[in-house]
Write a structure and sequence with these properties.
The chain contains 5 helices and 17 strands. The protein is of the alpha+beta class and 266 residues long. β7 and β8 form a beta hairpin. The radius of gyration is 19 Å and the shape is globular.
């Protein structure tokens, strides 16, 4: 680790602790504010991120690219480049100033780490109620944020945009994330076993219906966040998706944008 990067901050999402090293105290302060509720003071880290902020984008013409080669994760977009060695637990990031680029890198690193360990990030809202987690998946406009905004006081919102699913002790859990959508606030930093996965669609009435496994698998895979074309990780992710659907009830939730839909979500 570069000793010049003398400021640091810990960020832990889904039980995966990252220690960020930087020369810029202002950047640390920005991260502390942006990831409030997910800042870790333990000093323990699965990954050490050495971050260099640049005045200009590293590669203005680059589209997003995620490659796995010789055990190294290489992540590139116009506003950042990142090289991560997962076995060493280290990453070097060069990025445009601010939290936006860093947040994108953090999400991508989590998708890669989760794929290797039997989990995934999903385009979905999720909430904890009565000690169980409910995941509400759908494309943009399906109603994820609407449902989260209408949640009753006894429901804890884990996220309105990106759900974090991990496998722990043989079961799937949903974890709160700081990855917010239109609700513009971080989820609660807690976790619970997944009770049900519900695919959203808005309609004239509230109802929950069964889904066949083939349709559920297609929609699940469509909504999982994953950018790398690595055959090994893709195969693991497909296996995880199948295991998830074998162990978790999957339903279609049609709902009116009114709070009484939560009477179906117990």
């Amino acid at each position: 680790m570069n000793t010049a990067a003398h400021h640091q901050i810990g960020i832990e999402v889904g039980g995966l602790p990252v220690l960020v090293h930087t020369q810029d105290q202002k950047f640390c302060d920005q991260l502390a504010k942006y990831y409030a509720g997910f800042v870790s003071h333990s000093g323990v880290a699965r990954f050490h991120f050495e971050v260099e902020q640049l005045a200009q984008a590293p590669d203005p013409g680059a589209e997003i690219s995620v490659e796995v080669r010789d055990g190294i994760w290489s992540v590139r977009r116009a506003d950042f480049t990142a090289e991560c060695n997962p076995s060493a637990g280290s990453a070097k990031i060069r990025q445009s100033a601010g939290t936006h680029s860093f947040d994108s890198v953090l999400r991508i690193i989590h998708t890669l780490a989760l794929a290797d360990e039997g989990g995934f990030l999903l385009h979905a809202a999720s909430a904890l109620r009565n000690g169980r987690a409910f995941i509400f998946s759908g494309v943009s406009g399906a109603g994820k944020t609407t449902l989260a905004r209408m949640a009753p006081s006894d429901a804890t919102i884990l996220t309105d945009e990106v759900s974090y699913v991990r496998r722990l002790d043989g079961r799937f859990e949903a974890c709160g994330t700081p990855f917010a959508g239109e609700l513009a606030r971080a989820g609660a930093n807690t976790s619970a076993p997944v009770d049900t996965l519900l695919f959203l669609q808005q309609g004239p009435e509230n109802r929950i219906e069964e889904m066949n496994k083939q349709e559920a698998l297609q929609r699940l895979l469509r909504n999982i966040l994953f950018f790398a074309a690595d055959p090994g990780l893709v195969s693991k992710l497909f296996e995880t998706a199948n295991k998830f659907l074998e162990s978790i009830p999957v339903r279609r939730l049609t709902f009116r944008p009114e709070p009484d839909v939560w009477s179906l979500i117990q």
